[in-house]
Amino acid sequence: MVNPESNDTNSAERLLQRTGGKLIDVHAHYTPPLTEAERNKMADLFRAGHFTAPPTGPWTADDALTFMDSHGIAVQMLSYPNRLTPDEASRYNDFGATVVRDNPDRFGLLANLPLINPCQAVSEVSRAIDDLGADGFVLVTNYDGAYLGDPRFTDVFAALDDRHATVFLHPVQPPSFGQVSCGRPGPVIEFPMDTARTIVDAVYARVFQKFSNIKFVVSHAGGVLPTLAERVGSTGMLPWVSNTNGVAREDVQAQLSGLFYDTALAASPNSLLPLLEITSADHIVYGSDYPPGVLEVIEKNIDLLSTTAVLQDHELARFSSTATDLFPRLKNRQHS
């Protein structure tokens, strides 16, 4: 292990020494160029979400590459994790595919699926894979209050399962956000909570067992999910808890351990130690949350990973190989 007290290399270099090579960043976001009306709409959404200012400015591929080159990141898997209409999802995915075509060895695309319209989302699965060459997909934790255990999403999961797809799951604001957020933006409290809500809902619906060909990557080390896992497996199995699918404690454990989790803004021991109680180190991948995570916080997270005693060097070295296994099209591009 690298000496945490060593000051002869910066955090990114220390992390690269421990991982044995450059990182694959599964948690990175992009935004296409927006019209003035779209920018105003986005500003309104930020204000409604209790942001006092947008967390980041316009995204460009050049800015992303500069960030990657200075932080030891070989590839970013780009996603736009928000509720989009079918037309919006199509436009965003088309732009993301163009970025990847221009930089095939530096970016991958996680296409947005508009689950607010499940029928259109099924069509977008095929279009994104067959026409755009998408590496995977991004879903958010709820769609106007419908969580991922909702039966209306069954056909979408079936389409993803048929394609052996990898799905990146990112939180958004829950319903009644204004009543539960304590006036703070979603990333402070409610994003980690909503991650747990949707995963637990999907566990009770046996989504991860019914659609076992899908590989799910959960952002931010699962949010508060790891600390709730034991409670769900015990109290959540009592007779007075609704459990129409007969999920048992062992089913809870099996479903949670089979998911993958990223380290975005979650590399401290109080995130990683609970995570390792529900899954193994070979189910962890690197995530930065660039650019909305904000450079100062992202770099602090890199520093935590570079000096962590929770994961050993050989476990950190698995990050990128696990990521390429999750995204075989990326692996093929790198070897072409």
Write up this protein.
Strand 9 (260-262), helix 12 (269-278) and strand 10 form a beta-alpha-beta unit. The chain has helices spanning 11-19, 36-48, 61-70, 86-102, 118-130, 154-162, 177-180, 190-204, 207-210, 225-234, 249-257, 269-278, 295-307, 313-316, 318-326, 328-335; strands at residues 23-29, 73-79, 107-112, 136-140, 142-143, 146-147, 166-170, 215-218, 260-262, 284-285. Mean pLDDT is 94; it is low at 1-8. Helix 1 crosses helix 13 and helix 4 runs parallel beside helix 5 (118-130). By secondary structure, the chain is of the alpha/beta class. Helix content is 47%, strand content 13%. The longest helix is centred in the first third of the chain and has 17 residues, at 86-102. Strands 1-2-3-4-7-8-9-10 form an eight-stranded parallel β-sheet, sandwiched between helices. The chain has a two-stranded antiparallel sheet with strand order 5-6. The protein has a single domain, classed as Metal-dependent hydrolases (TIM Barrel).
Which structural class is indicated by helix and strand composition? Answer: alpha/beta
Give the number of helices. 16
The separation of the N and C termini measures 33 Å
Strand percentage = 5-15%
Main sheet properties: 8 strands, parallel
Average predicted local confidence, pLDDT: 94
